[in-house]
């Protein structure tokens, strides 16, 4: 999938020229430049912090392999830094969320992604800073117990019943490891233990569990391909909609959007673009960076369209370019769009 940094570079190399002669167009052009510069600068800083987190989590896994005690002092400092960064910035942290994860780094990267998304959901729900600190700390090591079953997980072919049951116990292993430390409070420990559970459980467990599912669906694994963001949203609403507290899942969809950041959409004009920002409370009206014309040719003078303000055309539906060559093929959008609208409608009325 094309990365946000590549999009910014493409936009900068082509020159985002002013459209039209009206002052509003000049303002829009300047906004595009400002957004591009801000996103790129934030991406660089977030990448540094992200890599720091990957190293921290990888070190924890290695310490468990070597039967050593984990030093969580650095982890606590990191969670505070990561939280402060997420609180200050907008949704740019999610722009690199869909980048491909290498097999060697899957667990640390998955854990980082889940911690970032969990924190965003917590922010959208209005949690205070103390609660967010505990949430991000819990999410960061929610899969620590996977190290106890990594030989099974990395095994080729289908797993036997006993193997599957052992893998399914990894949240319990995570809680057992973390309970030997003073890293988490009781709610955090219970949330780690129950993040795959679907019965009554702590609120943090609902948040981490939802972030965990969405992250897993949108990234490839050895036994399955990644699904496009809009398909992941539809699958979660259809299969897991009743498994989470209603306000958690509605807040998630409202803020991340039916068309999440990083997903591709086709406009009623035939143009194709990538979603760069969701408009909170309006899941069908994100901001889109238009990249291709109706002939699927790259546009020289690209533009950003805010569908909260646009009334002359609209988003026709999602385009899954993960299974097609760039954006040259037509996507079967009508069925997907109808399904998403129906499922979103049922959620909104609940």
From TrEMBL:
Residues 325-350 are annotated as: Disordered. It comes from the Bacteria. Residues 103-226 form the HD/PDEase domain. Coiled coil: none annotated. Residues 325-334 have a biased composition (Basic and acidic residues). PANTHER family: CYCLIC DI-GMP PHOSPHODIESTERASE PA4108, CYCLIC DI-GMP PHOSPHODIESTERASE PA4108-RELATED. This is HD/PDEase domain-containing protein.
């Amino acid at each position: 999938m094309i990365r946000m940094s590549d999009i910014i570079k493409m936009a900068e190399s082509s020159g985002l020229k002013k459209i039209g002669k009206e002052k509003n167009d000049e303002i829009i052009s300047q906004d595009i430049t400002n957004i591009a510069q801000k996103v790129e600068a934030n991406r660089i800083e977030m990448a540094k912090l992200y890599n720091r987190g990957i190293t921290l989590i990888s070190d924890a896994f290695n310490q468990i392999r070597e039967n050593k005690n984990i030093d969580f002092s650095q982890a606590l400092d990191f969670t505070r830094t990561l939280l402060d960064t997420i609180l200050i910035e907008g949704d740019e942290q999610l722009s690199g969320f869909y980048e491909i994860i290498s097999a060697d780094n899957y667990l640390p990267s998955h854990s980082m992604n889940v911690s970032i998304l969990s924190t965003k959901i917590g922010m959208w729900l209005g949690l205070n800073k103390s609660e967010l600190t505990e949430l991000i700390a819990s999410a960061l090591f929610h899969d620590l117990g996977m190290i106890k079953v990594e030989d099974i997980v990395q095994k080729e072919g289908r797993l036997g019943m006993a193997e599957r049951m052992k893998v399914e116990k990894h949240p319990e292993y995570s809680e057992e490891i973390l309970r030997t430390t003073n890293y988490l409070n009781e709610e955090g420990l219970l949330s780690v233990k129950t993040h795959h559970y679907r019965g009554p459980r702590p609120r943090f467990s609902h948040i981490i569990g939802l972030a965990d599912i969405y992250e897993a669906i949108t990234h490839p694994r050895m036994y399955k391909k990644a699904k496009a963001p809009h398909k992941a949203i539809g699958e979660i609403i259809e299969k897991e909609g009743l498994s989470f507290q209603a306000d958690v899942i509605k807040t998630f969809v409202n803020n991340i959007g039916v068309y999440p950041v990083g997903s591709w959409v086709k406009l009623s004009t035939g143009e194709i673009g990538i979603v760069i920002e969701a408009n909170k409370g309006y899941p069908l009206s994100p901001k889109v960076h238009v990249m291709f014309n109706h002939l699927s040719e790259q546009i020289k003078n690209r533009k950003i369209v805010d569908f909260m303000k646009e009334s002359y055309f609209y988003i026709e539906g999602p385009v899954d370019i993960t299974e097609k060559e760039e954006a040259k093929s037509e996507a079967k959008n009508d069925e997907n769009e109808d399904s998403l609208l129906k499922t979103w409608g049922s959620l909104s009325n609940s």
